[in-house]
Design a protein that fits this description.
6 helices, 84% helix, Protein Yjbj, Chain: A, elongated, single chain, mainly alpha
Length: 138
């Protein structure tokens, strides 16, 4: 188990190395993290524009694989990846469902109003062709 003094020593090392890597970070910025690896990654991302992966890789490099902070960062990254995966899966299902609904509506419209559908398709084709040829002239 890491003692409070060891943790404080790592904290000072980490914040010092972060400020070396990203000069725009201030002590106040880093204090907002309050000793949390996940909050630290978020603060560095927000202040520097670095990606989450860049910050996590930097922290892992600084702390080494056996350091307790490195495992906290890795766990935070895994939670973040799991949440992103879950979010994408939910929204992918929703998009597929909506796409199916729209295709049924379009098919019904084409079946019930073929002349209007053909006129709209023809107009869109002319508009797309005009945009294409106008873009090539530049």
């Amino acid at each position: 188990m890491v003692t409070r003094e060891e943790l404080k020593g790592h904290w000072n090392e980490v914040t010092g190395r972060l400020k070396e890597q990203w000069g725009q970070l201030t002590d106040d910025d880093l204090m907002r993290a309050e000793g949390s690896a996940e909050q630290l990654v978020g603060v560095v991302q927000q202040k520097t524009g670095a990606t989450r992966r860049e910050v996590e890789q930097f922290l892992t490099k600084v702390l080494g694989p056996d350091n307790p902070w490195a495992s906290q960062v890795a766990e935070a990254a895994q939670r973040y990846a799991d949440e992103a995966k879950h979010y994408l899966q939910q929204n992918a299902r929703r998009v597929v469902s909506q796409t199916g609904d729209y295709s049924v509506k379009v098919a019904e419209t084409v079946r019930t109003k073929p002349a209007e559908s053909l006129a709209i398709a023809f107009g869109l084709g002319i508009a797309a062709g005009a945009l294409f040829f106008m873009g090539r002239r530049r």
